[in-house]
């Protein structure tokens, strides 16, 4: 603990009669939920993956539930988020021309989980496959 007058010069809240949080030095939090929902739509819908056997595309953002916030404490940004995301996908097998569609479900996308620990479920008809999200998720859909 610094002696009186020897603290960080940014720490001036005590000296202000109005107690203003100058430069967001103390805890400051902003809701980022609606911005995040728009960003999911922008970034996820339209992702196309194609190889020799077929082509797949995320066709729609069916459901997004959760929240996100951006906080600042002593000049450091801290992000909190927890999401449930359901995406619709469609694809075609090149050789046969058979079309498929289904759902991708991400039940707990959170800053608390490592990328490799995030659960992703692909639902196609009666088939339900659970796999681990890898760093190449957008490429390997």
UniProtKB/TrEMBL annotation:
Transmembrane residue ranges: none
Short name of any one Pfam family annotated for the protein: Aha1_N
InterPro entries: Aha1 (IPR036338), AHSA1-like_N (IPR015310)
Superkingdom classification of source: Eukaryota
SUPFAM superfamilies for the chain: Activator of Hsp90 ATPase, Aha1
GO CC annotations on file: cytosol
GO biological process: one example: protein folding
A GO molecular-function annotation: ATPase activator activity
Coiled-coil positions: none
Domain Activator of Hsp90 ATPase AHSA1-like N-terminal: 29-138
Family listed: Belongs to the AHA1 family.
Database matches in PANTHER family: ACTIVATOR OF 90 KDA HEAT SHOCK PROTEIN ATPASE HOMOLOG 2-RELATED, HEAT SHOCK PROTEIN 90 HSP90 CO-CHAPERONE AHA-1
Name used for this protein in its record: Activator of Hsp90 ATPase AHSA1-like N-terminal domain-containing protein
